[in-house]
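Researcher: Here's the sequence for the chain we discussed earlier.
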Amino acid sequence: MRGISRRGFIKGCAASGLLLGGCKDGDAPGGETPATAAGSPPAVKKPAATDGRLVVLGFDGVDPRLVEKMLSAGLLPNLQKLAREGGFSPLGSTSPPNSPVAWSTFATGKDPTEHGVFGFLRRTPKSYLPGTAPYTITGPRFGAEKGYTPPSAVSRRQGPDFWNVLDGAGVPQSLLFVPYAFPPPGLKHGRVFAGLGAPDLRFTNSSFTRFTTEPARAGDKDRVAGGRIVRLASFLGSAIETALEGVRGPDKGYLAAPLRLELNQDRSALTIELGGGKQTLPAGRRSQWFPVRFEARGAPPLLGRVRFHVIALKNELELYASPIQIDPASPALSLGGPGAWLREAAAVHGGLPTVGWVHDTSAVNASALPPELFLADLLDTMDGRAELLARELDAGASRLVVSVFTGTDRVAHMFYRDTAKPDLGALGRVYARMDRIVGDTRKRLKQGTKLIVLSDHGFHAFDRMLHVNTWLEAGGWFKRSAKGAEVKFLRGVDWQKTRAYALGNGQVYVNLVGREGQGSVAPDRREAVLAAIEAKLLEVKDPKTGAKPVRAVYRVAENAAAGLQDRAPDLQIAFAPGYRSSWETSLGGAPVGGFLADNPKVWCGDHAASDRPETPGILLSDAGLAVKDPDLKDLSATILTYFGARAEGAGRKLF
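Model: Thanks. This is the structure I predict for it:
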């Protein structure tokens, strides 16, 4: 059955004794908020002194089917109580239902064709080079002629975010770890701690380091997806001097901080010295934060902090170093503010991580961090963020508090196979932690405060993958520069003979004359190419499973707003559950051989290119729900109108 019908969802929950709030008696299922003219600023008014407060809790990637299963077993008592007293429904996500797109819709109340974020990655049409879609981060530059250029970050999202509108109306706010609110807004009346989007001190999404005495094997590399491998000589009973690498410096080598490691005689403990800090740890223990300082002539120091997991000591040394966090006391890029508040907030719970991709999935995929330690870190980070949330609620300074937890998404990526277990295994533990956070939050709410709990999308298994460029090649739309040539990052492509190419999660582009740098398809032939690719994608059948990997194909660029057509993909593939575009496709690759393959990674759950009707999030509110089919874009309208501001777009008032 495609999608999750509200009727089916209600029946499932009712069977477990859960009464849904749904529409209030006498309320129409619309509740539309008047929209202003496109492009005009929204009208705002100063909120009255009697206006209530609003708390929004976001739990990235929580799936309504898994919630229903745990509710039926009585494992989420706080969510069950909230649903009975208010309202509970699936929440329509975006197309595609992935976090950059969905959280941008949450912020603006607009579809991706309006806000201009179409996925995790984008391409530059003239050069075909991939880059991040929601924002552009540029690391520091060390030039002999131009001197030092500091790092910078620029948002690529279109349309006003609701927090900027409310800030203009003087509404005090706390934005805690809101995904893709980056660069963080400089609110005059608010507190901001940046979330997903904030880079590490290498100015990457996140990049770990694995130190090991294990000898390299044939084919091993010192650079892996999301991390670096440092091979060490055996040093039992003595110390070894090595280094923790940072960003590239003036001579194109990496800036480095001296690191000293000493393994004691019986291999029971490792002493780590870095940046003036020194800690001795047994196997299985995580360190406290170490200060990190990178220096280059003619430039200010780059300050950060890092912590280590001692994975193993007995046979070979295995030491995991986290992504290097930007120091909140002296940030190389803004992490939010005000500064004094941010420094205090970042010190909560022994020091909160500052990198946006805070749960290191890449290290698990690379076998640098065992899954059980990943899960322990994830739960600890949830606890730390919950502690900061509690402080903000108790302080009572903000009329709007938005706090987002991404651990619920990351655990599903890495442990989705646990959904076969009666208690959902690792997912069950993290969902239970979510439930506890909701319960603790409700206890702190003052009278008159409303609560919204939501997730931006659901989840599916990721068992098989489609090499989209390889499939396009088989159909004659994509051509390598030479037979068997390696294609990565869209390099190694014969553009004069290529009519279409893929990049990102399920995104297909026509190699269009006048748009692409080496376009081969005339504008009057574009429709024929799109129609042919669309029809053939829907016919693909997996010989291993007998299933059709592609559920639907959507036109995007032709529906995008003025100024966004060249940025948008021409087609968005929506995959059936169990399938996704391949890891290689995501970065513009085209492996030689067959176009369908097993997913080889620990990362076994996904949603990034799933079909919107099959991948809703969840929505709960203690105020009930006045709309029968709530959608993610309704959240911005609801928040704005709650504080007396007028919302743009088609979003509706939920209560």
